[in-house]
Amino acid sequence: MSIPSPDFKIYETALRVGGLAAREAGAYILSESGAVSSDDIFVKGTHDLVSRVDHEAQRIITAHIAEAFPRHHILAEEGDDNVHIPGKGYTWIIDPLDGTTNFLHGVPPWAVSIALAYQGEPQMGIVFDVTRNELFTAAEGMGAFVNGQPCRVSDSSHLNDSLLSTGFPYRDFEHMDAYLSALGHFMKETRGVRRPGCASIDLAWVAAGRFDGFFESGLHPWDVAAGMVLVREAGGRLSNYEGGGDLTPLGGQIIASNGHIHDHMAHILQPVRNVLNPA
To answer: Angle, to 10 degrees, between the axis of helix 9-31 and the axis of helix 52-68?
Structure first.
């Protein structure tokens, strides 16, 4: 459940500052596409890469935020902070380059993701699809937009009319068999399942009605915070794999949908849920 800020005007300023930061960082990222060498890449894990471009994009974004909101906390993917969103005050949650592996291989999409949380709850979200030049924005009670035009989730009412997206496990492989079983069900019962490799875009495209639903687990707050606001403000539904509203820890497991197919998705994900949350 969302927690309204005591000052809604802050979201207007946050959208302006965050939008400028996202576009500036995106322009820098695009200018570096194809120019990154192996010496510029750092391996955080076998399937988890970071480059100098991530770091510079983050510097650009945080500079904008620190100037406009010097008292706000910042939680960023390439920072030194623990993965924890304070339960008080305002916290910016940033992924300066979501889809780093895509970017390094020259395979879109990749995006800039910026969210503002109040009392631990994401209230404003910005996702900038760099290669498509699409800026997705949303804030509590203000609706969701793509390049300034309102967007809404799809109206597909059945799973067999739906196109889904997901992300493959890349940190914890203990539930791989259960995940593949659920994936097989979705492949049989939908129009298709896509894997863009960029969770913020997955969520933005659910908000825009391009995907009807999305599911993934093992993510971090910066992967999902902005996109969650987009989906919520576009009229969609968010939950954990049980279909409930408790999404803590943020990114641990998430279903996002147009609402109509949500319960069916949660039912199919039951085997994965049972492995992740054993009785």
So the answer is: 150
| Cβ 7 vs Cβ 120: under 8 Å | no
Here the tokens at position 100 are 């780093």
Domains and CATH numbers, the chain: 9-150 (3.30.540.10), 159-276 (3.40.190.80)
pLDDT in tens, 9-60: 899 999 999 999 999 999 999 998 877 766 666 655 544 556 788 889 999 9
Instruction: Give the Cα separation of 129 and 118 in Å (integer).
Output: 25
- The pLDDT tens digits for 100-118 are 889 989 999 999 999 999 9
Q: Is 253 helix (H, G, I), strand (E, B) or coil?
A: strand
Global pTM reads 0.92
Type of residue numbered 26: G
